[in-house]
UniProtKB/TrEMBL annotation:
Superkingdom, taxonomy of origin: Bacteria
Name of the protein described by the UniProt record: DUF177 domain-containing protein
UniProt feature, compositional bias: Basic and acidic residues: 156-168
InterPro entries in the cross-refs: YceD (IPR003772)
Region annotation Disordered: where it falls in the sequence: 145-168
UniProt cross-references to Pfam families, sorted A to Z: YceD
Residue stretches in coiled coil: none
Length: 168
């Protein structure tokens, strides 16, 4: 069965037209047909932290009752109940609910993905643990002009740092 369009969430989903692998069990019950199964789908998307592409497979279980239209329950079926349409069962809404509701809203390429540097945007996994930026908090930037020109941001004077002294 090919996947319909928009079969996923914002960051990850099933590619349109991809093959869905279904393992179904159909049981005749008094009210209709009970469908129990598992769907396996290919997933494509991007990591929510580092934006690298993700490709994997996903499996979801489902169970749904499709009621006969000529039974008392089928004639008075609620809007949220699924009905048999002649001899046909429309599995798309059931599969969509099973897969889309179980997908992670923030998929990760790996569990410990460090993401991107908020300052320069480089992947932190590539940059390594020594990657950092000497950036002052922008909320304090207006006060920087109040410092005397020979006073360093840490409060010391340049000549004190050279000689190893500190005024206190």
């Amino acid at each position: 069965m090919p996947a319909p369009e928009d079969f996923g969430v914002e960051m990850v989903g099933v590619p349109e037209g991809a093959d869905l692998e279904l393992d179904l069990r159909l049981e005749a019950v008094l009210e209709g047909v009970l469908v129990t199964g598992t769907v396996r789908v290919p997933l494509k998307g991007e990591c929510a932290r580092c934006l690298d592409p993700i490709a994997s497979t996903f499996e979801a279980d489902f169970q749904e009752l499709f009621v006969y239209p000529d039974t008392r329950s089928g004639g008075n079926a609620d809007d949220d109940e699924l009905r048999l349409e002649g001899d046909l069962i429309d599995l798309e809404p059931v599969l969509r609910d099973a897969v889309v509701l179980a997908l992670p809203l923030s998929p990760l390429c790996r569990e410990d993905c460090p993401g991107l540097c908020p300052e320069c945007g480089v992947r932190l996994a590539d940059a390594g643990p020594e990657h950092h930026h000497e950036a002052a908090d922008p909320r304090w930037e207006a006060l920087r002009g109040l410092l005397p020109p020979d006073l360093a941001p840490d409060g010391s004077r340049p000549h004190d740092r050279r000689e190893g002294r500190q005024e206190g």
